[in-house]
Amino acid sequence: MKHRIIYQDGHSILHSLHPLVKLSWLIFCTVFVFVAPYLWMVLIFLLVIVFLIPIANLPITNIRGLRLVITTALLLAIIQIIFTDQGEVLFTFWKIDITKLGIENGVYIAARLISVVLASYLFVLTTRPNDLAYALIQTGIPYRYGFALVTAIRLVPVFEQEAIIVYEAQLARGVQYNRKNLNKIILLAKQFLLPMLVSALSKVDALAVSMEGRCFGKYPKRTFLREVRYKKVDLVGLGILIIFVLMTMATLLEGNS
Amino acid sequence: MISVSDFSYRFNGNEDYTLRNINIKIDNGDFLVITGPSGCGKSSFALAISGYLFNQFEGEFEGQINIDDMNISKANIYDIADKVGLVQQNPEAQFCTLTVIDEIAFGLENRCIPPDEIKRRVDWSLEIVGASHLIDREIASLSGGEKQKIAIAAMMASKPEVIIFDEPTSNLDPTATREIFEVISELRRKSNTTVIVIEHKTTFLASFQPRVVYMEKGSILQSYADTTIEPLQRDYIQQNRTSYYHYKSQDPIIKINNLHAGYDGKKVLHDINLNFFGGDFVSIMGDNGSGKSTLIRNIMGFVEPIQGIIEINNKPIKDSPFHERALTIGLVFQNPEHQLFANSVWDEAVFAPKNFDIFNDKVTEMTEDLLQKAGLKKYKNRHPYRLSYGEKRRLNLISVLTYTPNCLLLDEVLIGQDNKNASFLIELLLSTVKDGGVVLMVNHNPDISYQFANRLLFFEKGKVTIDAPIQEAFELLERNGNSNYLPTYYRPTQSIIQ
After folding, report:
1. In whole angstroms, what is the distance from residue B279 CA to residue B277 CA?
2. For residue range A93-137, what is the model confidence (pLDDT) as tens digits?
3. ipTM of the assembly?
4. Which terminus of chain B, N or C, has fewer Cβ atoms within 10 Å?
5. Dihedral through CA A204, CA A210, CA A212, CA A216, nearest 10?
6. Chain B residues within 8 A of A134 when measuring between CB atoms
């Protein structure tokens, strides 16, 4: 059975990093793999990310969707290799020129995609969404928006479960989902969405009562019992990040001049 | 002190008043239970006292509600919240955060209370509900009973003068129900909070000696001191039961052999072997998570068993197409709103026969008859969502009876139903049994089971520990110490007239 892409409890160094430090790293990774001027840089980066997986002690090979991403990446790489005809020809295979540039481009694309996906997985799997929301609020975004995020995170599994119930209740009453007629499909969508909408609205009512009943929105600011604090390891993480950012910028400037 | 004088309320869009001319005084430290049939207005009354009726809903009212010298209809919701806490029916719907500690701190943080004080109050309120060990847990990982304890602690943390429970146990099994009521009594012992409980299950509460108020059609009928529901007489029940059950089929309709099943790699059911015959009305009981719903979903074929064979009408379900099998099974889930799909009561009732392509004059005739019996015929053209909760429930059941399946699977359909409505639903089910069908009903109501079922399955940790005729089954339950699952009849009558 595959795991869903949600937070996995653990005690690794990645788990204990401050959510915002991790978020900054994720943003840096995403930008870096696209601006890095040399292929070896991206490859080393990918290697580091792969190396982090056992450190975080994650069942990453067992996560839903990973196979799809890797297949897509390899497919993109193969397309690049086949359709690039510029550059030094290494060998010809059944009338197709395999060029050095093609291989380079293919590896580039695959490495970028896999890096970004793995880095995002690492972030999502080691960060409690709750902590991220609280950290964002404590950094200064208005708490109303922060709690909108918390509510969304909280309701996703609830709606997921309800969707299954509605779907099964329909199957039991003879609804057939393999219709090809467009009108039928629209009708099916309506019959499915109506119960979901009604249940969502009643949840909103209950939640509003619950939030107001506990003085949500009484004051523009609020206190926090649990502060998401920066620890030493976060400062180190942030320090390394800054060095990396500077180095990347320096390399880029050098390449341009 | 709460004083309600000549209070009436009508929701916008409704013709009738939901609350009518209510007068009551509730003293500090009182323990009040408000009971009455579903739709009698007791939940609206809770919303009125806690102020939400005037803030969250549109409607018009007469009369006045005061808490001490605060006029609730005019007060700011935040000021009311400092005095009154409301614990709602479904714990799932009232959580604002993802972890236990954040949830309890939530109301205090919003009030800008300093962290040190919040910490003290979190510990205090967790201790009151007996859930100190849950402090580091995520809410999603808690059981239903634990969730409701956290919801109560979250309300207690702000130290309200009055705490209102709106059917706090309607989603819980009898074991958890007992625990929550014990928490409520503990809370009264440890603080002088005024407690108002809105509840169907008054027998559980009787031993705490509350003051009881009975509501019907929006009015308070009487205050009476004896909450004991008239226990059904054993003779009466047995006489009636024989008139339901005089038939048992030769071959089982549902045959389950060596079933092991579960979800997401987690095994829930272990080695289940059961035969259900035509004429069986089976009540399936047991704590939440013990495997009752998993059994239902496996019989329906929604999940594939890990191991074992299930046969329905002599056909292994693996070998029959879903559509064909569904025609012989009627399935109703807990929440009525998850299973209303059509635009009118009539269309809803004939929704399944049309899907199955068996709609004809006979079905029309039968549907008319069923709607008539359920008192829904006058709403034929009304949208199903405009029915009351109890009416929706009846419609749910009718809409599976219209294609005359010979197996009925019911997952907690009695939740939130008063005894009158529940009895009506069961009368409908009995017609299937009389016609030689089988009914499997997952439920938490021992009184109803005792009155109507002829066989009881008791689940514990994924195993069937009791499978016996109803009378014998309750005797076994009593012997095994499962006192929470016994019908009222088995308990000493708890008359609380002092």
Report:
1. 6
2. 777 777 888 888 888 889 999 999 989 988 988 888 888 888 888
3. 0.84
4. C
5. -100
6. 102
